[in-house]
Amino acid sequence: STKPGQAQFAVGVPSYVLDWIATGETTASSVLVHTVPPIVAVVALLRLGPWPHWVPVASGVLYVALLVLCRWITAPSLNVNLAFAPWAPSADFGPDWLLRLINLLLLLILLPLIDRALRAFTRAAVRATGAPA
User: Fold this and answer.
1) Which of 34, 35, 48, 90 is the least crowded, having the fewest Cβ atoms under 10 Å away?
2) Which residues contact 38 (CB under 8 A, 6 or more apart)?
3) 7-16, 36-45, 58-67: least confident range
4) DSSP code of residue 81
5) pTM higher than 0.90 for the full model?
């Protein structure tokens, strides 16, 4: 399924890159977690062809479900997927609820944009290789 990869493109990769820039730190496991799913998603998209138009909606729902799951099964000190607190460098920009609302709005904006970009990329790649669509 491409749904987790699409959410990773829209939310995970930009968040990861911003965090890496802001903190100047990362780990090998973080690099793998934030790069392997998008790469696998692109390979799957190129092999499987077009995906249903409801995929961005499903990606958003899965992202929110992931936040709930992280809040339920991970330690607050780890703050996995920002389930317990906003991103530290953004904490001064407003209250927790406002930052979460901004994240949700960004998700609603980025998922359709990433969907369009991935569709255009896969169409171009298929045309370039001459593979059947």
Assistant:
1) 48
2) 5, 8, 9, 12, 13
3) 7-16
4) G
5) no
Contacting residues for 115 by C-beta, under 8 A, at least 6 apart = 6, 55, 56
Rg (CA), the chain: 16
Instruction: Compute the distance between CA of residue 132 and CA of residue 46 in angstroms, rounded to an integer.
Output: 10
Contact 81, 70 (CB under 8 A): yes
Whole-number Å distance between alpha carbons of 132 and 88: 46
What is the pLDDT averaged over residues 103-118? Answer: 86
Taken as a whole, the chain contains a residue count of 133
Q: What is the reported pLDDT for 76?
A: 95
Instruction: Please tell me the distance from the alpha carbon of residue 41 to that of residue 128, in angstroms, as a whole number.
Output: 19
The sign of the CA dihedral 25, 29, 30, 32 is positive
pLDDT digits (tens, 9 = 90+) for 13-38: 777 787 788 888 888 888 887 788 88
- Dihedral sign (CA 26, 32, 37, 40): positive
